[in-house]
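ingest -> validate -> predict -> emit
validate: passed (alphabet ok, no gaps, 182 aa)
predict: started
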Amino acid sequence: TARRRSEAMLRSRLRLSEYARRATLSELLRAVLDEAELLTASRIGFFHFVERDQQYLELYQWSTNTVEQMCQAVPESHHYSIDVAGVWVDCVHTKRPVVYNDYPSLPHRKGLPDGHAPIARMLSVPVMRDGEVVAIIGVGNNHTDYTGEDADAVSSYATMALELVERIRAEDDLKQSESMVR
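emit:
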Protein backbone atom coordinates (compact mmCIF):
# COMPACT_ATOMS: atom_id res chain seq x y z
CA THR A 1 0.00 0.00 0.00
CA ALA A 2 2.93 2.37 0.56
CA ARG A 3 3.96 1.92 -3.06
CA ARG A 4 0.40 2.52 -4.30
CA ARG A 5 0.12 5.64 -2.15
CA SER A 6 3.44 6.90 -3.49
CA GLU A 7 2.31 6.31 -7.08
CA ALA A 8 -1.01 8.04 -6.36
CA MET A 9 0.87 11.02 -4.94
CA LEU A 10 3.04 11.27 -8.05
CA ARG A 11 0.00 11.15 -10.35
CA SER A 12 -1.70 13.74 -8.18
CA ARG A 13 1.33 16.06 -8.28
CA LEU A 14 1.39 15.85 -12.06
CA ARG A 15 -2.35 16.61 -12.35
CA LEU A 16 -2.07 19.56 -9.97
CA SER A 17 1.03 20.98 -11.67
CA GLU A 18 -0.74 20.86 -15.02
CA TYR A 19 -3.93 22.33 -13.55
CA ALA A 20 -1.98 25.19 -11.91
CA ARG A 21 -1.12 26.52 -15.38
CA ARG A 22 -4.71 27.48 -16.08
CA ALA A 23 -6.36 27.75 -12.65
CA THR A 24 -6.88 30.64 -10.30
CA LEU A 25 -5.35 30.39 -6.86
CA SER A 26 -8.71 29.55 -5.33
CA GLU A 27 -9.41 26.84 -7.92
CA LEU A 28 -5.96 25.34 -7.44
CA LEU A 29 -6.25 25.16 -3.67
CA ARG A 30 -9.67 23.53 -3.94
CA ALA A 31 -8.13 20.92 -6.26
CA VAL A 32 -5.25 20.35 -3.80
CA LEU A 33 -7.79 19.79 -1.02
CA ASP A 34 -9.86 17.44 -3.17
CA GLU A 35 -6.74 15.38 -3.89
CA ALA A 36 -5.70 15.36 -0.20
CA GLU A 37 -9.20 14.20 0.77
CA LEU A 38 -9.10 11.45 -1.82
CA LEU A 39 -5.71 10.16 -0.72
CA THR A 40 -6.60 10.19 3.00
CA ALA A 41 -10.22 9.01 2.59
CA SER A 42 -11.39 12.22 4.27
CA ARG A 43 -14.69 14.04 3.82
CA ILE A 44 -13.72 17.59 4.71
CA GLY A 45 -10.74 19.79 3.89
CA PHE A 46 -9.56 23.36 4.37
CA PHE A 47 -6.65 25.62 3.42
CA HIS A 48 -6.15 28.93 5.21
CA PHE A 49 -3.33 31.46 5.06
CA VAL A 50 -1.62 32.73 8.20
CA GLU A 51 -1.03 36.45 8.02
CA ARG A 52 2.50 37.85 8.42
CA ASP A 53 1.82 38.98 11.99
CA GLN A 54 1.22 35.30 12.93
CA GLN A 55 -1.90 36.46 14.82
CA TYR A 56 -4.62 36.04 12.20
CA LEU A 57 -5.78 33.58 9.58
CA GLU A 58 -7.27 34.39 6.23
CA LEU A 59 -9.99 31.79 5.80
CA TYR A 60 -9.35 30.96 2.17
CA GLN A 61 -10.60 27.67 0.73
CA TRP A 62 -12.54 24.51 1.49
CA SER A 63 -12.72 21.29 -0.49
CA THR A 64 -15.52 20.66 -2.95
CA ASN A 65 -17.13 18.03 -0.71
CA THR A 66 -16.93 20.30 2.35
CA VAL A 67 -18.81 23.07 0.55
CA GLU A 68 -21.28 20.93 -1.37
CA GLN A 69 -22.07 18.13 1.09
CA MET A 70 -20.73 18.65 4.57
CA CYS A 71 -20.84 22.22 5.83
CA GLN A 72 -23.26 25.10 5.56
CA ALA A 73 -21.50 27.33 8.12
CA VAL A 74 -20.73 30.78 6.76
CA PRO A 75 -17.87 32.60 8.45
CA GLU A 76 -18.69 36.06 9.80
CA SER A 77 -15.35 37.26 8.46
CA HIS A 78 -12.60 35.83 6.33
CA HIS A 79 -10.05 37.00 8.90
CA TYR A 80 -9.92 34.99 12.09
CA SER A 81 -7.80 35.49 15.20
CA ILE A 82 -5.59 32.51 15.98
CA ASP A 83 -6.08 33.23 19.69
CA VAL A 84 -9.79 32.44 19.54
CA ALA A 85 -9.57 29.56 17.06
CA GLY A 86 -10.08 26.02 18.23
CA VAL A 87 -7.96 22.91 18.03
CA TRP A 88 -7.81 23.10 14.23
CA VAL A 89 -5.00 25.69 14.59
CA ASP A 90 -2.94 23.72 17.11
CA CYS A 91 -0.51 23.02 14.26
CA VAL A 92 0.26 26.76 14.15
CA HIS A 93 1.37 26.66 17.78
CA THR A 94 3.36 23.42 17.51
CA LYS A 95 4.64 23.99 13.94
CA ARG A 96 4.01 20.27 13.34
CA PRO A 97 1.18 18.16 11.99
CA VAL A 98 -1.51 17.51 14.59
CA VAL A 99 -3.80 14.47 14.57
CA TYR A 100 -6.93 14.19 16.68
CA ASN A 101 -8.62 10.83 16.21
CA ASP A 102 -11.25 11.48 18.88
CA TYR A 103 -12.23 15.09 18.36
CA PRO A 104 -15.39 14.96 20.53
CA SER A 105 -13.37 14.05 23.62
CA LEU A 106 -10.84 16.90 23.32
CA PRO A 107 -11.05 19.05 26.44
CA HIS A 108 -9.70 22.17 24.71
CA ARG A 109 -12.01 22.19 21.68
CA LYS A 110 -14.12 25.31 21.39
CA GLY A 111 -17.17 24.02 19.61
CA LEU A 112 -18.39 24.51 16.07
CA PRO A 113 -20.47 27.28 14.49
CA ASP A 114 -24.05 26.63 13.39
CA GLY A 115 -24.14 24.69 10.14
CA HIS A 116 -20.60 23.30 10.51
CA ALA A 117 -20.07 19.64 9.72
CA PRO A 118 -19.70 17.46 12.82
CA ILE A 119 -16.06 16.49 13.37
CA ALA A 120 -15.03 13.00 14.44
CA ARG A 121 -11.35 13.03 13.43
CA MET A 122 -9.05 15.68 12.03
CA LEU A 123 -5.52 16.22 10.80
CA SER A 124 -4.06 19.70 10.42
CA VAL A 125 -0.66 20.55 8.99
CA PRO A 126 1.30 23.79 9.07
CA VAL A 127 2.62 25.07 5.75
CA MET A 128 6.08 26.42 6.58
CA ARG A 129 8.37 28.95 4.91
CA ASP A 130 11.61 30.17 6.53
CA GLY A 131 10.61 28.81 9.94
CA GLU A 132 7.23 30.56 9.97
CA VAL A 133 3.78 29.12 9.45
CA VAL A 134 2.35 30.74 6.30
CA ALA A 135 -0.77 28.58 5.95
CA ILE A 136 -2.52 25.54 7.32
CA ILE A 137 -4.08 22.64 5.47
CA GLY A 138 -6.40 20.19 7.11
CA VAL A 139 -8.59 17.21 6.43
CA GLY A 140 -11.15 15.47 8.58
CA ASN A 141 -13.69 12.77 9.12
CA ASN A 142 -11.86 9.76 7.76
CA HIS A 143 -13.81 6.62 8.74
CA THR A 144 -10.68 5.26 10.45
CA ASP A 145 -7.95 6.86 12.52
CA TYR A 146 -5.43 9.11 10.82
CA THR A 147 -1.88 7.76 10.79
CA GLY A 148 1.62 9.11 10.46
CA GLU A 149 1.44 8.19 6.77
CA ASP A 150 -1.64 10.40 6.41
CA ALA A 151 0.21 13.27 8.12
CA ASP A 152 3.16 12.75 5.75
CA ALA A 153 0.86 12.73 2.71
CA VAL A 154 -0.95 15.93 3.74
CA SER A 155 2.42 17.53 4.58
CA SER A 156 3.56 16.68 1.06
CA TYR A 157 0.42 18.34 -0.34
CA ALA A 158 1.14 21.35 1.88
CA THR A 159 4.64 21.72 0.46
CA MET A 160 3.42 21.27 -3.10
CA ALA A 161 0.56 23.72 -2.56
CA LEU A 162 2.94 26.38 -1.28
CA GLU A 163 5.23 25.94 -4.29
CA LEU A 164 2.28 26.28 -6.66
CA VAL A 165 0.85 29.25 -4.74
CA GLU A 166 4.19 31.04 -4.95
CA ARG A 167 4.41 30.29 -8.68
CA ILE A 168 0.89 31.63 -9.35
CA ARG A 169 1.55 34.75 -7.27
CA ALA A 170 4.85 35.38 -9.06
CA GLU A 171 3.16 35.02 -12.44
CA ASP A 172 0.36 37.37 -11.35
CA ASP A 173 2.93 39.92 -10.12
CA LEU A 174 4.78 39.68 -13.44
CA LYS A 175 1.56 40.21 -15.43
CA GLN A 176 0.69 43.22 -13.28
CA SER A 177 4.17 44.71 -13.73
CA GLU A 178 4.01 44.19 -17.49
CA SER A 179 0.62 45.88 -17.70
CA MET A 180 1.93 48.88 -15.75
CA VAL A 181 4.85 49.26 -18.17
CA ARG A 182 2.52 49.37 -21.19
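The CA atoms of residues 91 and 150 lie 15 Å apart.
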